[in-house]
Amino acid sequence: MNSRLKWVIMFIGFLSSYPAVAVDSTHTPIQETERDASSTTANVLSATDRARAHLWDLSETEWRRYKQLMQGIRGSISPSTISPIEVLGIHARDDAERKRYAEVWARAMYEDAGRILAFQRAYDAAAKRLYPNVSLIDISRLPGKRDVKTPFQSGDRLLFFTRPDCPACDLLLNKLLKRIDQVSGIDIYLTDVDKGDDRAVRDWASNHQIDPDWVRSRRVTLNHDGGALDKLTQGQGKIPMVMRRRGEDVTRLPASDL
Fold first, then answer.
1. Cβ–Cβ contacts within 10 Å for residue 88, how many?
2. How high is the pLDDT of residue 126?
3. Does 81 fall in a domain?
């Protein structure tokens, strides 16, 4: 074999081993270039996003953070109408940032309230000008107040059976005294007080702010029970109890009627 042929064969062998190395050495730079281009594309805001960011007076960096936050829990649990300012404020990274977004949102809400009130005033004026003799609400079609039924008549007297140191009795007494102008009077009967111990009855009345003028005019009478409750209820009465005397009839009144 002459020297020229030997040299050609050696050169072909060298080329056959070179492509594998060449492919491996050029693969990584191409992939890195593709990733850099993809990253750059992701960070570029669309014209619509830039316009919306401008309307909210936010920078492109702030708008990207807002969109990123909406991809997480905030977008899952908040209404779609939540504002970018609220999103950024809720997820503020420090107190200063939270305060800044809070002030921006407060100013926006204040200004919007002014716009709403201004439009309402303009609407009211327009309605009066265009329809001066027309009422927007037909009052005659509104439901009237229902007649409130009362268990009392002016000639009724209420019989109230109570005892000292009884919080439930005191609550019921307060309700009764508010009704005193609707009836002829209230007769109070105290149990658990020694018969003839009028001072205990007077002390009880004073502690419960019973007006002495009511007692003098007999709008309120103070009495020892003396078995009256057992007689009227055949021994079934329990303290506190309210009964209504209408003429000769005496009936029990539930507390819910007071």
1. 24
2. 92
3. yes
pTM of the model: 0.44
In a domain, 97, yes or no: no
Sort 85 into a burial class: Cβ within 10 Å, 0-12 / 13-18 / 19+: buried
For residues 171 and 251, state if they share a domain: yes
The Cα-based distances of 46 to 42, 66, 81, 158, 228 in angstroms read 10, 14, 20, 81, 90
Would you state the structure tokens that stand for residue 257, as one six-digit string?
Answer: 């009627």
Q: Is residue 61 part of a domain?
A: yes
* Residue 232 covered by a domain: yes
Amino acid at 4: R
**Are residues 164 and 76 located together in one domain of the fold?**
no
Q: Write out pLDDT tens, residues 78-90.
A: 998 999 999 999 9
Question: Number of folded domains in the chain?
Answer: 2
Contact status, residue 60 vs residue 53, Cβ threshold 8 Å: yes
For residue 29, pLDDT beyond 50:
no
